[in-house]
Amino acid sequence: MQVFHTVAELRTALAGQAGTAFVPTxxxxxxxxxxxxxxxxxxGQPVVASIFVNPLQFGAGEDFExxxxxxxxxxxxxxxxxxxFVFAPGVAELYPVPQTFTxxxxxxxxxxxxxxxRPGHFxxxxxxxxxxxxxxxxxxxxxxxKDFQQLLVIRELVQQFNLPIEIVAGATLRDADGLALSSxxxxxxxxxxxxxxxxxxxLAAVAAAVQAxxxxxEALCAAARRRLKMAGWRVDYVALRDAATLQAPSSASAxxxxxxxxxxxxxxxxxxxxxxxxx
Length: 279
Ligand code: PAF
Known about the structure:
Layout: E1 2-4, H1 7-14, E2 21-25, H2 31-41, E3 47-51, H3 71-81, E4 85-87, H4 91-94, H5 107-110, H6 114-117, H7 121-136, E5 140-144, H8 148-160, E6 166-170, H9 190-195, H10 198-211, H11 217-230, E7 234-242, E8 255-264, E9 267-276
Parallel strand pairs: 1-4, 2-3, 2-5, 3-4, 5-6
Antiparallel strand pairs: 7-8, 8-9
Helix pairs in contact: 7-8, 10-11
């Protein structure tokens, strides 16, 4: 496996490659990322992973500075997973001039759910992913379903800009108690870690109630929010949406998704459960 820190090295290594499979990451890799690399391997060759903590997608006061940078350990995991190339640029390499040209996702995706609580976040994600796509020029790119709204933003980016890239979604990996694997889990203290699977349990409870025929979606989500608050969480949102559009569910919705974001102390966790509409 080769590791590149510059755009020039990356372009030289990838020149003439038509079947590249790409896994963009911010590093601090866990088994969920490894599973995305393994999925990428089934879709193309060579497999390229990027490691870049993107300042554009962090708001003021968010965890950009404290986000764990663990390049050596990440490279060991990527090599073991069969990754061919790692692109790990510094901020000045990817943003040599201020990135005043940005990709702005549609309001309905950018300013809803996580976007409502993290203004500018999805523009930052779309902008860096568009840059990385231009550099890597993959045929396939793999994103995790845990970042469900991000996945839809990327699908919309690819569709609206006619990018010749197939987007493949990887399953969310979970610990035995249901907690979705996330780099941010490392921030949790011992008692928070015990509490953390409650988010997934509440989302799954909403999904189960809808599947069992309950139709008052807002009451279900409000009850989940209330229970989380009573257990000490600060809840950003729990919402039920159409899984294809993230709009409110309608009779035409084939799949639904319950999404949640909530804080345990200073750690913000997100998760989602998607399922076939019972309608
Ligand atoms: O999901 C992530 O880790 C990041 O948002 C991504 C897609 C690598 C863009 O920085």
